[in-house]
Specification:
Length: 299
């Protein structure tokens, strides 16, 4: 599970089936990627920016990425969503629904209620089926439904791809965060912002395909500036959304960079995969580590 990534761009894309197949079968052109090598005196960390949900256009991966995985002694991800235990799954669902007399509609404006009803009709869902869902859970459900319309699946994402390979290879898998931390973030994020965030996401569902085409192409081409612009164009310019950006990225970047720094004190080689949005910009993890004096080289 993953936070909404930037709220305007929820990592979705679509392409013609013929194009998918031609991209999947063609040899990848070598060039700059969202992969950085971070070195200390004793450790090498390969830091890879992920697209969490994708189609097949991002494959096959460039050799610099596959070579980094081959050289690594462990894989590190934000959260290993392929291995949730009963306690973790229970924590998700215990926080995903209102209890007692509370329900979603009590937290939405009249405008948002109308937008929600219209969106639900698009997916053949009745309002009564979702009225006990909290906004973050409902938003994830609607985004997943929109992604599915365009063949977008989490299992096509970079995280899933390497988690599968790591477990096939018997490679240790470590986490930078926990599922509890991410759910708690959702809860804090929507506190007093339920109407704003849900209304914002509902308004973006219709344009998500075009935005994701741009995003996936930027990732495929290693275009850091383009990807950064796509992820930040709305959240950094809208005063109401700036606190969302701060919680989803700035604060988490600091925490993840600190954990990566602890890895860099060890004698090992690691592939660390986080959402690409966490790596770019002046408050991104790469720059935070550079500011600490670590050597960073981009592939």
């Amino acid at each position: 599970m993953m936070p909404f990534m930037r709220f305007k761009t929820v990592l979705t894309a679509c392409s013609l089936a013929a194009l998918w197949m031609s991209l999947a079968s063609a040899a990848p052109l070598e060039g700059e990627t969202f992969l950085w090598e971070i070195r200390s005196d004793s450790c090498t960390v390969y830091l890879l920016g992920s697209i969490h949900i994708a189609d097949q256009r991002i494959y096959p991966l460039k050799s610099s990425i596959t070579n980094a995985f081959a050289a690594s002694k462990a894989l590190v991800v934000e959260v290993d969503v392929t291995d949730l235990d009963a306690t973790e799954s229970g924590y998700i669902f215990s926080n995903a629904f209102y209890t007692g007399e509370a329900d979603l509609l009590q937290h939405l404006s009249a405008e948002s209620r109308q937008m929600l009803k219209k969106s639900l009709r698009r997916y053949g869902v009745q309002l009564e089926q979702v009225r006990k869902m909290k906004p973050w859970f409902l938003a994830n459900m609607l985004v997943s439904a929109e992604l599915a319309k365009h063949g977008m699946r989490p299992e096509n994402g970079i995280d899933y791809h390497f988690l599968h390979l790591a477990k096939k290879r018997g490679l240790p898998v470590l986490e930078l965060e926990s599922i509890r931390e991410q759910i708690d973030l959702f809860e804090e994020l929507v506190n007093t912002r339920e109407d704003l965030l849900l209304r914002y996401l509902l308004g973006e569902l219709a344009t998500v395909e075009a935005e994701m085409n741009e995003l996936l192409n930027a990732w495929k081409n290693g275009d850091v500036e383009k990807l950064y612009g796509l992820l930040n164009q709305q959240t950094l310019n809208d005063p109401e959304l700036k606190p969302v950006n701060e919680m989803l990225f700035t604060q988490r970047n600091l925490k993840m960079a600190a954990k990566i720094e602890r890895f860099l004190a060890k004698e090992t080689t690691l592939l660390i995969i986080v959402g690409a949005g966490h790596l770019v910009g002046q408050d991104g993890i790469v720059q935070l580590l550079r500011d600490k004096g670590y050597r960073a080289r981009r592939f």
